[in-house]
Amino acid sequence: MELSPLAKRKPGSTNLVERFEAFIGGFECGNAYTELNDPVDQRLRFEEQLRLRAAGDDEVELVDDDFLFALEHGMPPCGGFGLGIDRLVMLLTGHSTIRDVILFPQHKTLKD
Question: Which end of the chain, N or C, is less packed with Cβ atoms under 10 Å?
Fold first, then answer.
């Protein structure tokens, strides 16, 4: 749950969420999860993120009051799948590094 603070909790579990990652040839090419649409649960998770931030973890999500306001007014069940096109192109072209297929790499590898 700490890795996916916006994913819906798996029924009957206190620390698992409805989430999966798709792999092709040993490489992650995308991930998906069911969106959390419970405003009470989401607020509690944001508060936990604030506690982690206060303890020094600066990579956690901040409280999004606008998002919580929207959840309180109703959000239907939803989810989605994010496909990494660059990763898929890497696999289809046989490259071993994503830097070889992205248009604007920050650190392009040097070639002979």
Answer: C
